[in-house]
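Q: Hi! First time doing this. I have a protein sequence and I read that you can turn it into a structure. Is that right? Here it is:
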Amino acid sequence: MSYIASFDIGTTNTKGVLLSRDAKLHFEKDIAMTTMQDDQKIEQEPTQWFDAIVQIVAYWLQQGVQPTEIALVTFSGQMQDCIPIRQSGLPVRPAILYSDNRAQQQAISLKEKIGMDSIQTLTGNHLNETLTFPKILWYKEEEPELFSQTESILINAKDYVIRQLSGQNVTDPTSASTTGLFNLKAQKWIEDWLSLFDISSHILPKIYQSDEIVGQVTKEAAGRIGLAEGTPILCGVGDAGAATIGAGVTQIGKLYAYIGTTGWMAMLTDQVRQMPVGVFHLAYIEPKRYIVVPPIMNAGLVHQWAASVFATSTIEQQSAYEELEAAMQSANRKTSQLLFLPYLNGERYPVQDTKAAGIYLGIRPTTTRAEMSCAALEGVAMAMRQAMEQLTDGKPIQQITLIGGGSKSKIWNQIIADVLGVEVQIPVEPQYIPSLGAAALGFVKLGWTQNVTNFLRSSSQNMTRFFPTEELQEHLEKKYERYKRIYTAYKDLFV
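A: Yes, that's right. Below is the predicted 3D structure, encoded as structure tokens:
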């Protein structure tokens, strides 16, 4: 049997799955990731990404898969990172992740030196400290000795793994869109901006289209990982691009939502138009099409926090989530007035405030852990509603597709349907949707299917549907109006 190996390197887990020619999933495997976080610092060791790939491939081989049966390797992964590597391909330091907020001063300097009009015109986006460009400047200014040892700075976690497998420094247009250095319409790096800060453009990876083969598994890598030497490697696509494909969003104006550690709402468009600060335009896999993304900095992170605080089991155990799920069933959501602002890690949209934090509003002597847990997840759903209203200009929609690991929680899915006031549909295995999206490109490349649409048709999953609870709508509408006022009321108190 022949397979395509698809890997999705996320913040919480690295996932791997094999897809046979009939687009069926085989031997799914997840490996947990470790994040180092302290105040505004959020980092990961890149070596753990490759180690996870090694473990997943070893699992497949133990199941009887032969290395030569894997016809192609493709990837999705977390974007907007700053991953400095040496000439050897090994990391100089830990990767600075997309949610790291230390480059605030560098972002201000960039906007002053280049000008926001030029930045928005060329990149299609606003610029803040979470983009890769300010992170590169922070790295150069704060750690000059390490910077001098840096051959290249990679953008996406998958780019690091591709370097280990093939020796090539590459990235894709979707990932490049999150740097603040990418000309969105011309699809190339804006090298002049780097030269303003005495940084060589050679430090950036070469941009390939997501469906291009960028190299082959080298002899050395084959010995380390267990794949066959010469196995072709696809460039792959950043997680938002892969999720968009996998969610079946191939038509202009269609909407979906993703809940990982962070999350987003997204819609496909053929226009780059003026948007509020924090909303991204990302390159899509097709020319002159873009993904509009209002990001949600705190999504699955809030679920994880709630499980760690309100469950009696430790967060390392899956039982903590199961315990939380069961406990929330007892909460009376029809009468609860408890609100939660979910800005645990600051927020990028609809506000840009790295100092913002989580707030409970309305705790009473009778408030229970179950009610507080529901309020936390409800707060994320309200943040999602703000993003949805931005994308739809407030016009009603009937349905959205929800994907990502957070959508495994049935009660959260119901909360989201209730707060958004729309039908929410969940694929059977929502956590593997980005892997499917990345695999779709491989299927087309190998001629296993004619196009992405045909692949999606053959790989389509059954959907579980959640509908808004009619008797909750008036109550939640009033809560939502109060929710939108929380940040403004408390913003001057954040430290």
